C-alpha cells in the first residue's frame, strides 16, 4: 500500500469508530444550528490569485511543523495577512488535526473554511457541515467513480462547496466528465510518494475549460510563483507548510499576497 492507500484505509476505520460514538441523527440535528453562510467558491473569484491559507500541524513527509501556537492565533494571522479562505487539516493519525481545530478556526475567523481531509463516507460530510465547514475536499485518487459522484452530490445538497482534487490527466478527465466539477484543485504533490512538482499545474491547466475555478496546491513559498500562476489564469493557491513554518505567518502571507505592496520576497 502507498501512503494514500494507508491513509484512506485508516480513515475508513476512524469513520466507523466515530459513527458508533456519534450517530448520524445527532449530526443531522446539529445542522439546524449551523452558523452563517460563508461561500468558499466565491472567495476564489476575486481579482488576482486568492490564497487559501492552511493550518496543518504535521505531515508524513515533513513531521511536526509548528508547535506552541493555537489554531485561533494562526488563522487570525492569516486573516490579517490577506487570506481569502482557510484550509483546516483535520486528519488525525498522519497530520495531527481534528474537527476541534476546525471549530476553533470557525470561532476565531470570519473567513470561509475548507475541511481538508480524506473524505470517503457521507458521514464525514455531515460532520463537516455540523463543525462549521463551508467546503470539503474530494480527492479523485482516493475514490471510486460512483463514490465520487455520490459524495459530490451529497455535499452540494448540504450546501457545502467542493474542491475536487486531481494530480494527473486521467483524474482531471474524471473530474470534468463525470462530475463537471466547478472548482478544481491541481495538487502538485503526488500522494503516493509525497514528491512535489509545481510544473504539474501548468501542464494540466491547458486541459481545463474556461469558466472553471482552478486552485493550485502544494509547493509554493514565494511571490514570484504566485505571479506566474496569475499570468496563466489560476484563480487560487493553497499554501500551508511555508506559512506554518514562518516565524510571523501574517507577514509571510502579506509578502506573498502583496498586501503591503512589497516586492516579491522568498520566505
List the helices and strands and how they pair.
Blueprint: H1 3-21, H2 24-31, H3 40-43, E1 50-55, E2 58-59, E3 63-64, H4 71-81, E4 85-89, H5 99-108, E5 113-116, H6 122-131, E6 135-139, H7 145-157, E7 161-166, H8 169-179, E8 183-187, H9 199-205, E9 213-217, H10 223-231, E10 236-239, H11 241-245, H12 249-257
Parallel strand pairs: 1-4, 1-10, 4-5, 5-6, 6-7, 7-8, 8-9, 9-10
Antiparallel strand pairs: 2-3
Helix pairs in contact: 2-6, 4-5, 4-12
Characterise the protein shown here.
- This protein is α/β, with parallel strands linked by helices and 267 residues long.
- It has one domain (3-257): TIM Barrel.
- It has helices at 3-21, 24-31, 40-43, 71-81, 99-108, 122-131, 145-157, 169-179, 199-205, 223-231, 241-245, 249-257; strands spanning 50-55, 58-59, 63-64, 85-89, 113-116, 135-139, 161-166, 183-187, 213-217, 236-239.
- The strands form 2 sheets. The protein has an 8-stranded parallel β-barrel, surrounded by 6 helices. It has a two-stranded antiparallel ribbon with strand order 2-3.
Give a quick precis of the structure.
This protein has an eight-stranded parallel barrel with strand order 1-4-5-6-7-8-9-10, surrounded by six helices. It has a two-stranded antiparallel ribbon with strand order 2-3. It has helices spanning 3-21, 24-31, 40-43, 71-81, 99-108, 122-131, 145-157, 169-179, 199-205, 223-231, 241-245, 249-257; strands spanning 50-55, 58-59, 63-64, 85-89, 113-116, 135-139, 161-166, 183-187, 213-217, 236-239.
Amino acid at each position: 500500500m502507498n501512503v494514500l492507500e494507508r491513509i484512506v484505509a485508516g480513515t475508513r476505520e476512524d469513520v466507523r469508530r466515530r459513527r458508533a460514538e456519534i450517530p448520524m441523527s445527532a449530526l443531522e440535528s446539529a445542522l439546524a444550528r449551523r452558523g452563517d453562510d460563508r461561500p468558499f467558491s466565491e472567495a476564489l473569484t476575486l481579482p488576482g490569485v486568492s490564497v487559501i491559507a492552511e493550518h496543518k500541524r504535521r505531515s508524513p513527509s515533513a513531521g511536526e511543523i509548528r508547535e506552541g501556537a493555537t489554531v485561533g492565533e494562526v488563522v487570525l494571522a492569516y486573516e490579517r495577512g490577506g487570506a481569502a479562505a482557510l484550509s483546516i487539516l483535520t486528519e488525525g493519525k498522519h497530520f495531527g488535526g481534528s474537527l476541534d481545530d476546525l471549530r476553533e478556526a470557525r470561532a476565531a475567523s470570519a473567513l470561509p473554511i475548507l475541511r481538508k481531509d480524506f473524505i470517503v463516507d457521507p458521514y464525514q460530510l455531515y460532520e463537516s457541515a455540523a463543525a462549521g465547514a463551508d467546503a470539503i475536499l474530494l480527492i479523485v485518487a482516493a475514490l471510486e467513480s460512483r463514490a465520487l459522484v455520490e459524495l459530490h452530490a451529497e455535499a452540494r445538497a448540504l450546501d457545502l462547496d467542493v474542491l475536487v482534487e486531481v494530480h494527473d490527466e486521467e483524474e482531471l478527465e474524471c473530474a470534468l466528465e463525470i462530475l463537471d466539477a466547478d472548482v478544481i484543485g491541481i495538487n502538485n504533490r503526488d500522494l503516493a510518494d509525497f514528491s512535489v512538482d509545481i510544473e504539474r499545474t501548468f501542464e494540466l491547466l491547458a486541459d481545463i475549460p474556461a469558466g472553471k475555478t482552478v486552485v493550485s496546491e502544494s509547493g509554493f513559498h514565494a511571490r514570484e510563483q504566485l505571479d506566474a500562476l496569475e499570468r496563466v489564469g489560476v484563480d487560487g493557491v493553497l499554501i500551508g507548510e511555508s506559512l506554518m513554518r514562518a516565524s510571523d505567518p501574517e507577514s509571510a502571507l502579506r509578502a506573498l499576497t502583496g498586501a503591503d505592496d512589497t516586492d516579491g520576497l522568498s520566505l
